């Protein structure tokens, strides 16, 4: 019965995904275990409240490091110390029993440390994708009773047929920029920048990377957790300054500084953006290109995930930015049973914190 199955999960408007008896995921709820799928702000709601309340905060070791480095836990009232005490690093595929429920994190290709969550209650298997795109890292959760899925690009208009060539376009632009201007600056968000570094290295770009101190520290975290980058320098260090003087390097900077990029022919600018469906790269001005590098599954990949996962019920997360309604329609056309949660507050049955749609 669908309604029985839906009694073991809920999604709150705050973004908290509740599974089984013990777990609140990616949002605060009065439960004993808080699981975090990855270090993006829309999955870290209520964290500072949660730190005081829950017994354990579980995430991959990389996600825990990123949360601390990016300053998501306030450094006041001993919160940071409390977070460190309650943080419980759980590696991919390591299983942890909480009461009679088993928790496991699976890799998700999204940002460094990102995971999917599987909870086995004994009777049911419940999977939650968190944010993902398909790629070598994403392990599809097979045949769960319930699959809870993100819906960022859930509309059939959000297709990126060129997605498999993006990496090559990026590499070509970088070589072209170095050859013509000796300098390339890549703008993006934390996490995505490190992804770009990894791609460039794996495709044979061996110019030094230079970056401001914060991005440098995050890159060190990425290396600690398995990214192979190498030859990267803090822009304020002696070596960093020397490289900047000489040219033939790639500079990585935060997206918020892209507006103030230099357009004087001294460098080629590349802006990494997810929201682009018409073409893989687009010229912004004489010295800047936008590259459509997304962290999220496009519409086709969301459908593909469900078809390979074969869940009994698909639950679409409507608490975050996305297109759950078109995705529901498209999945139903293909024969899947789909529920959108949260429905709305009228359906909220307070006693067990469950929504029943
Ligand atoms: Zn995310």
Keywords:
binds zinc ion, seven-stranded mixed β-sheet, single chain, 25% strand, disordered C terminus, 10 helices, 2 domains, 27% helix, Metallo-beta-lactamase, Chain A, 357 residues, Rossmann fold, alpha/beta
Task: Offer a concise description of the structure.
The chain is of the alpha/beta class and 357 residues long.
Structure characterization notes:
27% of the residues lie in helices and 25% in strands. It is α/β, with parallel strands linked by helices. It folds into 2 domains: 2-157 and 296-355, 4-Layer Sandwich (Metallo-beta-lactamase, Chain A), CATH 3.60.15.10; 163-292, Rossmann fold. The chain has a 7-stranded mixed sheet, with helices on one face. Strands 14-13-15-12-16-18-17 form a 7-stranded mixed sheet, with helices on both faces. It has a 6-stranded mixed sheet with strand order 1-2-3-4-5-6. Strand 19 (313-317), helix 10 (324-333) and strand 20 (338-341) form a beta-alpha-beta unit. The longest helix has 16 residues, at 166-181. It binds zinc ion.
According to CATH, the homologous superfamily of the largest domain is Ribonuclease Z/Hydroxyacylglutathione hydrolase-like
Query: Which CATH-level-2 architecture of the largest domain?
Result: 4-Layer Sandwich
Kindly provide the name of the CATH class of the largest domain. Alpha Beta
Q: Kindly name the structural category.
A: alpha/beta
| Count of spatially separate domains | 2
Shape: globular
Largest beta sheet: what is the strand line-up? Answer: 7-8-9-10-11-19-20
Distance between the termini: 13 Å
Tell me which ligands are bound. Answer: zinc ion
CATH topology of the largest domain: Metallo-beta-lactamase, Chain A
Largest sheet: 7 strands, mixed
């Amino acid at each position: 019965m669908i309604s029985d199955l839906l009694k073991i999960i809920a999604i709150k408007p705050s973004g908290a995904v509740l599974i089984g008896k013990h777990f609140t995921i990616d949002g605060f709820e009065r439960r004993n275990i808080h699981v975090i799928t990855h270090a993006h702000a829309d999955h870290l709601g209520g964290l500072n409240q949660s730190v005081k309340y829950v017994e354990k905060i579980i995430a991959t070791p990389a996600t825990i490091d990123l949360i601390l480095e990016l300053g998501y836990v306030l450094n006041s009232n001993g919160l940071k110390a409390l977070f460190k005490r309650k943080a419980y690093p759980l590696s991919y595929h390591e299983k942890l029993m909480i009461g009679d429920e088993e928790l496991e994190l699976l890799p998700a290709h999204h940002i460094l440390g990102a995971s999917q969550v599987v909870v086995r209650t004994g009777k049911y298997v419940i999977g939650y994708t968190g944010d993902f795109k398909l790629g070598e890292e994403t392990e599809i959760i097979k045949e769960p009773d319930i699959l809870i899925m993100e819906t960022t690009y859930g509309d059939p208009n959000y297709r990126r047929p060129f997605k498999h060539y993006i990496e090559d376009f990026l590499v070509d632009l970088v070589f072209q920029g170095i050859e013509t201007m000796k300098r390339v600056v890549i703008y993006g968000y934390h996490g995505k920048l490190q992804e770009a570094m990894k791609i460039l290295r794996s495709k044979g770009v061996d110019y030094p990377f230079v970056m401001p101190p914060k991005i440098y520290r995050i890159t060190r975290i990425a290396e600690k957790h398995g990214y192979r980058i190498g030859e990267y320098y803090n822009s304020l260090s002696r070596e960093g300054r020397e490289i900047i003087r000489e040219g033939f390097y790639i500079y990585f900077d935060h997206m918020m500084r892209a507006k103030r990029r230099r357009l004087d022919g001294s460098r080629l600018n590349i802006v990494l953006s997810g929201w682009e469906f018409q073409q893989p790269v687009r010229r912004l001005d004489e010295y800047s290109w936008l590259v459509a590098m997304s962290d999220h599954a496009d519409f086709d990949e969301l459908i593909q995930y469900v078809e390979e996962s074969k869940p009994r019920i698909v639950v679409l997360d409507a608490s975050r930015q996305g297109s759950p309604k078109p995705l529901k329609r498209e999945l139903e056309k293909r024969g899947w049973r789909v529920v959108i949660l949260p429905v709305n507050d009228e359906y909220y049955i307070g006693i067990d914190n469950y929504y029943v749609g």
